[in-house]
Amino acid sequence: MADTVEAVPQTAILDSQKNDPSFPNIWQELVWRGLIHVSTDEGELEELLAGEPITYYCGFDPTAPSLHLGNLVQLLVLRRLQLAGHKPLGLVGGSTGLIGDPRPTAERTLNTKDTVAEWVGYLKAQVSRFLSFEGENAARIVNNLDWTAPLSAIDFLREIGKHFRVGTMLRKDAVASRLSSDEGISYTEFSYQILQGMDYLELYRQYGCVLETGGSDQWGNLTSGTELIRKVEGKTVHALGTPLITNADGTKFGKSEGNAIWLDPVMCSPYTFYQFWLNTSDADVVDRLKVFTFLTRVEIEQFEASVAERPFAREAQRRLAFEVTSLVHGVDAAEKVIAASAALFGNGDLGVLDEGTLSAATAELTTAAVTAEQLGIVELLVATGLAESKSAARRTVGEGGAYVNNTKITDPDATVTVEDALHGRYFLVRRGKKNLATAVLEG
């Protein structure tokens, strides 16, 4: 899976990315894009980010083999700050991933050390694709297992634990919600905020890191680090929490029937990924353009006008889908997906689609297995459920509404051949303009 992620060329995309010069500084642009929900002193942070380059970090825990859309928000914040001249540290949590931050309702299932180590490799590859490792402010990937593993339990308690007050820890939102639940909270998850605080202290000492970014739901963990550095080093450092991205109707963004939209193309195909963005509602699309693309304020305001004046054209959704799919999977993958979408409905050549793209594009269609003896147009329409009976199928053909692989079939006695199958297996069967199904050749 890691090889799949690294295979997508990103150099051209990184080179094309720029912050919007119409803003006086990066802080003001982050505010306009809706990326600041909570932070330490705003005035100090704005001044800090407008000044000399600083080192900052964001952490990603390997609690799954891939990052998802929520993580993409953080990756883009890292990149925007890097484009402003600052030095990013992408932390992959080889130690914190063994524990996992507290869930709101129940204890996490702990993964094995081997599994977490494998996932660390995947996440390093993913994080690396969104940052530049060249120039004076080149990114660096770090793993908190490097400084946590050598530390004994006694040393951990004496050197780090003594600076944390249980009363303060109990008041953290993630902990408080679990304490009031039937599940309670284990000492393992309770200690997570200490480990994250220690990460910030270590990065401050090693690299002079003075800013941590993360989701606003992690604010308790973010401030555990700022407080620890203040106590141990007597220094003021900063934290920035981005808002949790929700849809206009209040539902959680990036979830579909409990499934995250993953950044790994094996776990979520580029076609599915593109369609997710294409289906963004009019109420949400402008906000998504601000957060997930590098389009300028002027460009986004033009799309905002388009949504208001020509919502049926869905210009903003199509641009959003192209931009984010290109960002995550590469321009070539985005163009293949667009070609597949057009070809499904007769506006392109199905034959040019690679098997992976074709399979992903037809994944949600009704699929029927057929044999070489069932390749008559009538049999295909019935087998795929596009016609209720052979007589209904014949009427569809007679009315000019039957297609196989985008070829119109006008003879109800016509058959297709095995040689006509896409990639030797697939027949895209269509009734009219919008009713689609797939017949897959057995054997």
Walk me through what this model shows.
- It is built from 21 helices and 13 strands.
- By secondary structure, the protein is α/β, with parallel strands linked by helices.
- It folds into three domains: about 1-245, Rossmann fold (3-Layer(aba) Sandwich); about 270-355, Tyrosyl-Transfer RNA Synthetase; about 365-440, RNA-binding S4 domain (Structural Genomics Hypothetical 15.5 Kd Protein In mrcA-pckA Intergenic Region, Chain A), CATH 3.10.290.
- Strand 7 and strand 8 form a beta hairpin.
- The protein is elongated, with a radius of gyration of 26 Å.
- Mean pLDDT is about 90; it is low at about 1-10.
- Keywords: Aminoacyl-tRNA synthetase, ATP-binding, Cytoplasm, Ligase, Nucleotide-binding, Protein biosynthesis, RNA-binding.
- It is an enzyme of class 6 (ligase).
- Its EC number is 6.1.1.1.
| Poorly predicted residue ranges | 2-9
Integer-rounded radius of gyration: 26 Å
Distance between the termini: 29 Å
Q: Strand share of the residues? A: 5-15%
Enumerate the strands of the largest sheet in spatial order, edge to edge or round the barrel: 1-6-5-2-3-4
- Helix residue percentage: 40-55%
- Per CATH, the superfamily of the largest domain is HUPs
Please identify the top-level CATH class of the largest domain.
Answer: Alpha Beta
Main sheet makeup:
6 strands, mixed
| H/I helix tally | 21
Total strands: the figure is 13
Keywords: Aminoacyl-tRNA synthetase, ATP-binding, Cytoplasm, Ligase, Nucleotide-binding, Protein biosynthesis, RNA-binding
Protein name: Tyrosine--tRNA ligase
Pfam families: SYY_C-terminal (PF22421), tRNA-synt_1b (PF00579)
GO molecular function: ATP binding; protein homodimerization activity; RNA binding; tyrosine-tRNA ligase activity
